Amino acid sequence: MELTAQQLSEYNGTDPSKPIYVAVKGRIFDVTNGKSFYGPGGSYAMFAGKDASRALAKMSKNDEDVSPSLDGLSEKEIGVLNDWEKKFEAKYPVEAFGPKVIVGIVSCATARPGCPFEVPST
């Protein structure tokens, strides 16, 4: 299953009849079991219904960083993001994939077959 950013936003925890989703590097995780963190009033609620890749990489809760864009991130920040991705994989099921995005020089498509990211052609 694939979701657009608009569809993903519907899973932000405000509707108790729907699960809570957070995307990391285009993979959408069901974080409903962590609703005390990701649900309304939770310390990571700003990530719910969004791709939080950039914010996780930068260890930021700023609204402007809650984005799927990896452009301009340092190698260290990419490493932090990869660590977060592993934590999500260990704790939450993958429910869907988000829209494909171009991520610049650093891309999981070069490291992992089947990655939802596309590498730009030069």
From TrEMBL:
Keyword Membrane: no
Record-level GO cellular component terms: endomembrane system; membrane
Domain Cytochrome b5 heme-binding: 3-101
Pfam families per the UniProt record, alphabetical: Cyt-b5 (PF00173)
UniProt keyword list: Lipid-binding, Steroid-binding
GO molecular function: steroid binding
Domain of life: Eukaryota
Family from the record: Belongs to the cytochrome b5 family. MAPR subfamily.
Name by which UniProt lists this protein: Cytochrome b5 heme-binding domain-containing protein
